[in-house]
Amino acid sequence: MTKLTLRLEKILSHILPCGVLADIGTDHTKIPVAAVERGLCQFALATDKSTAAVRSATEYIKSRELTDRVRVLQGDALNPIADETVNCLVIAGMGGILISEMLNNGLRGLLEYRSRRNPFNITSAGRQLNGLGQIILLPHRDVSLARDTLLRHGLTNISDDLFTDKGKAYHILDCEVR
Question: Which of 10, 17, 47, 178 is least surrounded, with the fewest CB atoms within 10 Å of its CB?
Answer without folding.
Answer: 178
